């Protein structure tokens, strides 16, 4: 049975963050309007402070962040993200403190992220963090007194890279609406891709996945695109209007009510299929996230881009590149990747200055709210019961961090399938049902269990805490619960 103290511990964690301290952990922590505001502010910095010879390069400084400090806490290699954040802070007139090598910080002595962030947030006004674990930035935010910005957490997300990507697209094309963007390479391991596809869908772009073999978008990202971001899958083969094959495009529905798993056979997708591609976004094989270090991988070169549909496509890459993007493209008029990296400075200047409320006259200077204040109920699994997140790279399963993280899950209502799924609050991966995972709900008051996970969503939050989810009936039985009437038959024997 759960220890009462576990519940109290978990609830205390939930109330840690101050309500007006904004953290940018996922691109979905920002509304579309806020993203536009960031771009307006970034554009303003470029107008005022650009190098006269290189219009996308910030060449001058202001002092609006004088006396403010940015802490960069990097547990993984970085060139662009850390240095552009630090350059942005200096251009704003602020200062930086940096921990960029975990082998020379207290991490090497075994200090947890939760303790480190509690210390560092007393030394700085804003923190940018990069960590190899999915969900690490969310955990850091729970323990921080100041805004935390995710500079990349495992294979989860990299929201500020997406801001640079969208800003670049916006500078090249008028609007993201109706834009067609191809994404190539390691769509599974690339956190830049995961933040990017959510944003593309939210702004109404069509996404054309070109994955390396076996590196398709992860199941949970694909599912969110379809079920939360109103994407439909359309087969690239005009003879097969009903999508579902992996060779498919994601089209954002104009209206949320058009949500459907598959494309509408009545709709003529021909014009869309024939439409030219506006941008090709190339990613590196994320070898640090794969066991096999050598796999077949697509190379984007002049031959690939010679196809008519790519004749006006901007070529983008978050960098670093390894072999997937031919250096001969650097002089191609379509190549924008160095400009994309340069935009890291004005975009991050805008983000930092908005988070620190430095714009007195900006209409959105309060900068709170957000696109997806998650509307799903949060369920807390008592520590030591049932299960925890099954993503082996989630911060909540890290031996050094697990005592600081609660087993928290969103109860996600899967409209399209009339059932409920569990999504880890930290890494946002869904726990999949399979032969060994057939969730049952135990009622701690009645000491019984039943298989209806969706029933949990209907419970008021004060009742929710008296229920425990087990992976299957055998685990609930082992914990001393009895099957509830209907469940007794189902689990008999
Ligand atoms: C990316 C990252 O770290 O995820 N780099 C970056 O921040 N521009 C992309 C990558 O490493 O491949």
Q: Please, how many domains? A: 3
For the sheet with most strands, the description reads: 4 strands, parallel
Approximate helicity band: 25-40%
Q: Would you identify the CATH H-level superfamily of the largest domain?
A: Aspartate/ornithine carbamoyltransferase
Structural class of the helices, strands and pairings? alpha/beta
Shape: globular
Assigned CATH architecture of the largest domain = 3-Layer(aba) Sandwich
Which CATH class of the largest domain applies here? Alpha Beta
Rg calc: 23 Å
Strand order of the largest sheet: 4-3-5-6
Strand content: 15-25%
Number of helices in the DSSP assignment: 15
Number of strands: 20
Low-pLDDT ranges = 1-19, 256-262
What does this structure look like?
It is a single chain. This protein has a four-stranded parallel beta sheet with strand order 4-3-5-6, with helices on both faces. A four-stranded parallel beta sheet has the order 8-7-11-12, with helices on one face. The two termini are 23 Å apart. With 493 residues, the protein is of the alpha/beta class. The radius of gyration is 23 Å and the shape is globular. It folds into three domains: 4-158 and 343-355, Aspartate/ornithine carbamoyltransferase (Rossmann fold); 160-338, Aspartate/ornithine carbamoyltransferase (Rossmann fold), CATH 3.40.50.1370; 378-492, no CATH class. The chain has 15 helices and 20 strands. Bound molecules: N-carbamoyl-L-aspartate. The site of N-carbamoyl-L-aspartate has 11 residues, from helix 3 and helix 7.
């Amino acid at each position: 049975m759960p220890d009462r103290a576990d519940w109290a511990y978990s609830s205390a964690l939930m109330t840690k963050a101050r309500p007006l301290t904004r953290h940018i952990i996922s691109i979905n922590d920002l509304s579309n309007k806020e993203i536009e505001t960031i771009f307006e502010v970034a554009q303003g910095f470029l107008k005022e402070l650009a190098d006269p010879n290189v219009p996308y390069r910030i060449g001058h400084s202001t002092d609006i962040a004088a006396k403010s400090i940015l802490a960069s806490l990097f547990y993984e290699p970085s060139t662009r993200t850390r240095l552009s954040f630090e350059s942005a802070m200096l251009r704003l007139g602020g200062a930086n403190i940096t921990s960029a090598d975990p082998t020379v910080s207290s991490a090497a002595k075994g200090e947890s992220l939760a303790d480190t962030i509690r210390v560092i947030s007393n030394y700085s006004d804003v923190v940018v963090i990069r960590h190899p674990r999915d969900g690490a930035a969310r955990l850091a935010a729970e323990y921080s007194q100041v805004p935390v910005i995710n500079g990349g957490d495992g294979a989860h997300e990299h929201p500020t890279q997406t801001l640079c990507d969208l800003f670049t697209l916006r500078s090249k094309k008028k609007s993201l609406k109706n834009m067609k963007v191809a994404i190539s390479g390691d769509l599974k391991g690339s956190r830049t891709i995961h933040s990017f596809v959510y944003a593309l869908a939210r702004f109404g772009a069509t996404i054309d996945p070109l994955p390396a073999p076996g590196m398709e978008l992860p199941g949970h990202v694909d599912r969110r695109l379809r079920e939360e971001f109103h994407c439909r899958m359309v087969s690239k083969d005009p003879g097969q209007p009903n999508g579902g094959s992996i060779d498919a495009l994601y089209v954002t529905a104009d209206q949320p009510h058009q949500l459907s798993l598959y494309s509408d056979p009545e709709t003529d997708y021909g014009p869309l299929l024939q439409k030219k591609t506006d941008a090709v976004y190339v990613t590196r094989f994320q070898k640090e996230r794969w066991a096999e270090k050598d796999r077949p991988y697509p190379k984007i070169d002049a031959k690939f881009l010679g196809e008519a549909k790519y004749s006006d496509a901007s070529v983008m890459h978050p960098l670093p590149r390894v072999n997937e993007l031919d250096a001969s493209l650097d002089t191609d008029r379509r190549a924008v990747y160095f400009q994309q990296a340069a935009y890291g400075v004005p975009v991050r200047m805008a983000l930092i200055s908005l988070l620190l409320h430095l714009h007195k006259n900006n209409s959105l200077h309060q900068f709170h709210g957000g696109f997806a204040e998650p509307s799903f109920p949060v369920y807390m699994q008592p520590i030591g019961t049932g299960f925890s997140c099954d993503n082996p790279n989630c911060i909540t399963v890290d031996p050094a961090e697990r005592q600081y993280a609660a087993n928290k899950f969103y109860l996600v209502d899967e409209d399209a399938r009339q059932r409920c799924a569990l999504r880890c609050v930290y890494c946002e991966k869904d726990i999949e049902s399979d032969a060994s995972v057939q969730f049952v709900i135990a009622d701690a008051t009645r000491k019984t269990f039943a298989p209806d996970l969706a029933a949990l969503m209907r419970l008021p939050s004060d009742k929710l805490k008296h229920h425990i989810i087990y992976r299957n009936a055998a685990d609930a039985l082992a914990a001393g619960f009895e099957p509830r009437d209907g469940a007794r038959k189902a689990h008999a024997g």
